[in-house]
Design brief:
alpha/beta, Rossmann fold, 2 domains, seven-stranded mixed β-sheet, two-stranded antiparallel ribbon, binds S-adenosylmethionine
Length: 280
């Protein structure tokens, strides 16, 4: 019988051959999932013998990862803003930049918002994070993908937030009513060419319509900038995530739409990533 360390080494080499980044870490996280322990606990069990049942549970997961399926889809969950979210191919995997955007919105808001609109909610990551943070806020989470909304509702229910977080299937603002103290969105913003150059994990497994927008990635952001003013409360705030090299065009668009205050904000990597807009 092989030891855990033998199988771990073999899996790491296999992942290396398949071109995965961080092959050892990926292998360890899959092993920890199957053995139902913390990753670091594996180090205390290197001599453990791997029985056939355990290997049988491990093999399909290793195969899926070797085909470049993202780890989060295989594990079925991901961390987001101090909470655990269910995640699968119905929606995009929430990214660290989006956690930064949630932090930015919280920093910029001068008072707790009564109402929040999350446009393009996907897994519900932003809506759930903000509803948890603002215990009295009413949140509307919009997406045009019914599959993504199904997953968002599962996450909203699991967080015990179904009373305050409502989901709406809509093409951006089309089915949205009322005004909001915070409008927040991480819309699709990649150009078709940028998408072609993404890692296989993204290109082969994440929903393309969650990532790619027309007009070199600007179409959804432009639409949101043009229309969000009509849905903003008088002292409300709009916070948007964008692609790189889009800020000159987006801030010009916002100025043309008549926003009083327009800020372009960098992410932790020092790249222009977020746009904050205030009142028309
Ligand atoms: C980049 S993903 C963001 C998902 C999630 N908010 C996050 O940050 O992880 C963009 C989301 O916008 C949604 N979307 C794309 N086009 C849309 C449209 N026309 N109306 C509403 N939602 C749309 C996609 O289905 C996807 O869930």
């Amino acid at each position: 019988m092989q030891t855990l360390l033998d199988v771990l080494n073999k899996t790491t080499r296999f992942f290396e051959e398949k071109g995965l980044e961080n092959p050892r870490l990926n292998a360890e996280l899959l092993f920890a999932n199957v053995l139902e322990c913390q990753r670091l606990d594996l180090y205390l069990q290197f001599e453990r013998l791997m029985d056939e049942d355990t290997l049988a549970s491990l093999r399909p997961l290793v195969l899926r990862r070797s085909r470049r399926e993202p780890l989060q889809y295989i594990l079925g969950e991901t961390d987001f803003f101090n909470g655990l979210l269910k995640i699968d191919e119905r929606a995009l995997i929430p990214r660290p930049e989006t956690e930064e955007m949630v932090e930015l919105a919280i920093r910029k808001l001068t008072a707790p918002p009564d109402s929040i609109l999350d446009l393009g909610t996907g897994s519900g990551a932003i809506a759930v994070a903000l509803a948890r943070h603002y215990a009295n806020a009413r949140v509307v989470a919009v997406d045009h993908s019914s599959k993504a909304l199904e997953l968002a509702r599962e996450n909203i229910r699991a967080a015990g937030l179904a009373e305050r977080v409502k989901t709406i299937r809509s093409h951006w603002f089309d089915q949205v009513e009322g005004v909001f103290d915070l409008i927040i969105s991480n819309p699709p913003y990649l150009s078709a060419e940028e998408w072609e150059n993404t890692q296989p994990e993204v290109r082969l497994h994440e929903p393309c319509e969650a990532l790619v927008a027309e007009d070199s990635g600007l179409a959804c952001l432009n639409l949101i900038i043009d229309r969000a003013g009509d849905y903003l409360s008088p002292s409300g705030l709009i916070v948007l995530e964008s692609g790189l090299d889009q800020h000159e065009s987006l801030t010009a668009r916002a100025a043309k739409a008549g926003y009083q205050k327009i800020e372009s904000i960098k992410d932790l990597g020092g790249r222009n990533r977020f746009i904050v807009l205030e009142s028309l």
